[in-house]
Amino acid sequence: MRTFPSRLRFWTALLVLAYWSVIHIGPAAAGIAPSRVSGVTQIVSTRDADMVIAQRALENKIVAQKLRDYGVSPEETKLKLAAMSDQDLHTLATASKGLPSGGDGAGAIITILVIIILVLVVLKLMNKEVVVR
Predict the structure, then answer these.
(1) N- to C-terminal Cα distance for the chain?
(2) Which of 31, 43, 111, 131 has a CA between 20 and 30 Å from the CA of residue 103?
(3) pTM above 0.70, yes or no
(4) How far apart are CA 60 and CA 87, in angstroms?
């Protein structure tokens, strides 16, 4: 018992073949998207680059907390940073390159602990014995 007569199979196959050939004819165009300036931060000199580095370092949680502990407000910090000489600003930017850019490192510690816990759970599920000596 055939579900399709031979004529219908022929025309269906021809239609599918035509459809696939039309789909594959269209050219694909790809390219690199041009970069654009956001308008918020424009770096045109080394002072501007040093200023951005120093501001990012001062936005660090640990640094901001230490400055608050010493009684320095964020507004005072910005005013003092703008009043610095080029040499002092460059020295501060160079010294602050070693600071973590995102936070205080608690996220990395938590990630490592979660990975260790997941490994232990997987080992327990596989009926493996975990021995800590």
Answers:
(1) 71
(2) 43
(3) no
(4) 22
Residue 75, Cα to own-chain centre: how many angstroms? 29
Longest CA span, the chain? 92
Closest CA to 49 of 97, 14, 109: 97
With contact defined as beta carbons under 8 Å apart, do 80 and 38 qualify? no
Q: Transcribe 40-98 into DSSP letters.
A: S----SHHHHHHHHHHHHHTSHHHHHHHHHTT--HHHHHHHHHHS-HHHHHHHHHHGGG
- Which residues, other chains included, contact 55 with Cβ-Cβ below 8 Å and sequence gap of 6+? 78, 81
